[in-house]
Write a structure and sequence with these properties.
308 residues, alpha/beta
Length: 308
C-alpha cells in the first residue's frame, strides 16, 4: 500500500515509518519539523519507497494513498503550550484535512488520539466508554480539547460521509527518539540522571502513570488499522501502573547515577492517576504490551547516552 504518515518525523511517527517500510509499504512522511527531526528519519532518505514532504497539516494537501495515519501534533506540555492556538489548529484543521483527503481518495484514516481526552479521571482505570473530566479553559486545554474535537470530526465524517476511520487513544509512551527537552517524565528523569542533576518530582511522587514501550505501541497501531471489527476508540497503553517515585528510583538504578530526588509543586490540571483499561485492545486486536519497563528503559537510556 501507499501510506501517508502526518507527523512522520516525530518520535512515534518515525517508528511507525520504520515499521510500515519494513512491512513492504510505500510511505509518504509529512512533517513541518516543529517537534519532529530529520535525524529521526534520515536512515530512510535514500529509500525509493520513502518520500519526505515538509508541510504543515493546517494547510490542505493532496496525495493518492490507501491509508492515512494522522500523528501530527506536539504532544508534550512545553511544546503544545508554546503556541496553544497553533496546537488547537493542528488538531482540528489537521483532522479536517486528513478526513477530506480520505473522503476524496477513499483511504482509511487513523487518528492518534490521547489518554488526555480523559482529563483528570474520576474513573480508574479508564475504559473507552468514560467521557472524561477535562478543564476546557486551562493551560492544557489546547491539547486535550483539540484531540477531543479531532475524535468528534472523525466520527462525524464516518457517519455523514462513510469515511473508513480508526481511532487510538495513546497512553504514556517512551523509547528512543523522544525529544530530550520534551518535558515528559521518562526523558526528564533519564536526561537528569545522565547529567548528574537532581531528578525533579512534582508533588509527593505518589501520582501514577503507565508506561508503554514504543515498539509495543506501534504494533497496536498497525493491528487496529488493519482489522475490521472496530473503528475504535481503542486504548493502547501499558496497564502496569508505577508511581513517579518508583520510576525515578528505577532510572537511578539503571543509569548508576548519583543524582538525588527533589520535590516541586504539582502543575495545574496534572492528572493524579492514568492507567488504560485495555480490554477492547485484547478482544479486537489480540494486543497487549510485551516489553517490561526495565527492558524498555535500558534501550531508552542507551539512546539518550548518544544525545546527552
Amino acid at each position: 500500500m501507499r501510506i501517508l504518515v502526518t507527523g512522520g518525523a516525530g518520535f512515534l511517527g518515525s517508528h511507525l515509518c520504520d515499521r510500515l517500510l519494513k512491512d513492504g509499504h510505500e510511505v509518504i512522511c509529512l512533517d513541518n519539523f516543529f517537534t519532529g527531526a530529520k535525524a529521526n528519519i534520515a536512515h530512510h532518505l535514500g529509500n525509493p519507497a520513502f518520500e519526505l514532504v515538509r508541510h504543515d497539516v493546517i494547510d490542505p494537501f493532496k496525495f493518492e494513498v490507501d491509508q492515512i495515519y494522522n500523528l501530527a501534533c506536539p504532544a508534550s506540555p512545553p511544546h503544545y503550550q508554546y503556541n496553544p492556538i497553533k496546537t488547537t489548529k493542528t488538531s482540528v484543521m489537521g483532522a479536517i484535512n486528513c478526513l477530506g483527503l480520505a473522503k476524496r481518495v477513499k483511504a482509511r484514516a487513523f487518528q492518534a488520539s490521547t489518554s488526555e481526552v480523559y482529563g483528570d479521571p474520576s474513573v480508574h482505570p479508564q475504559p473507552e466508554s468514560y467521557w472524561g473530566n477535562v478543564n476546557p479553559i486551562g493551560r492544557r486545554s489546547c491539547y486535550d480539547e483539540g484531540k477531543r474535537v479531532a475524535e468528534t470530526l472523525f466520527f462525524d465524517y464516518h457517519r455523514e460521509n462513510k469515511v473508513d476511520i480508526r481511532i487510538v487513544r495513546i497512553f504514556n509512551t517512551y523509547g528512543p527518539r523522544m525529544h530530550p527537552n520534551d518535558g515528559r517524565v521518562v526523558s526528564n528523569f533519564i536526561v537528569q540522571a545522565l547529567k548528574g542533576e537532581d531528578l525533579t518530582i512534582y508533588g509527593d511522587g505518589k501520582q501514577t502513570r503507565s508506561f508503554c514501550y514504543v515498539d509495543d505501541l506501534i504494533e497496536g497501531f498497525v493491528r487496529l488499522m488493519n482489522q475490521t471489527e472496530t473503528v475504535g476508540p481503542v486504548n493502547i497503553g501499558n496497564p502496569g501502573e508505577f508511581t513517579m517515585l518508583e520510576l525515578a528510583e528505577q532510572v537511578l538504578q539503571l543509569t548508576k547515577s548519583k543524582s538525588k530526588i527533589v520535590h516541586k509543586p504539582l502543575p495545574a490540571d496534572d492528572p493524579k492517576q492514568r492507567r488504560p483499561d485495555i480490554t477492547l485492545a485484547k478482544k479486537h486486536l489480540k494486543w497487549e504490551p510485551t516489553i517490561p519497563l526495565a527492558e524498555g528503559l535500558q534501550k531508552t537510556i542507551a539512546y539518550f547516552k548518544t544525545k546527552v
